[in-house]
Amino acid sequence: MPDAGPLGLIALGLVFGAVSAVTPFLPVEAYVIGLAVTHATGIALAGAVAAALGQTAGKLVLFSAARSAGQSRWLRRLRERGAKAAAEVTAGDGAREDAPAGRTRRGLQRLGVWTRHANAVGTRLLSGRAGPVVVLVSGAVGLPPLLAIAFYAGSSSMKVRSFLAACLVGRTIRFVVLALVPDLF
Prior knowledge:
The protein is an all-alpha fold. The chain has helices spanning 4-22, 28-38, 41-69, 73-92, 100-127, 131-141, 146-155, 160-184.
């Protein structure tokens, strides 16, 4: 029968990975490095793979949340209501363009245009053939942050299987490299 200590550490890697996937202030990398420094390479590698599996499961939750939010009637009505209220405020705003309120309004309008454009570009990129590559690189390198990429991918037309495979491979690469780093020194 296998020792319960290493199995517990591997299971903890799975749980820690899943929780850290949805909370940006809880880095699973610290767990993987700590495991690599304090335990044998085999245990560290198994913990790294378990953390990658947990991270992938957590990112799938974010992906699914973004996918279902885009189809929500409640959210659509809320956006329409907000756009209508913003139009009414803008139409009734008698502020001069050079006054602070006018400059602020212009700045917010530019920010809104830029944000909508960035969202459209990100969604288009992830919907195409490059989408899984972006997810894989994000998972392996951390740039762009996988937390944001999971949401963008969920709002794109990327297939769930493609997202899962790319995320798992990217995260496995990242965590296995981290688990092997202490052996290099």
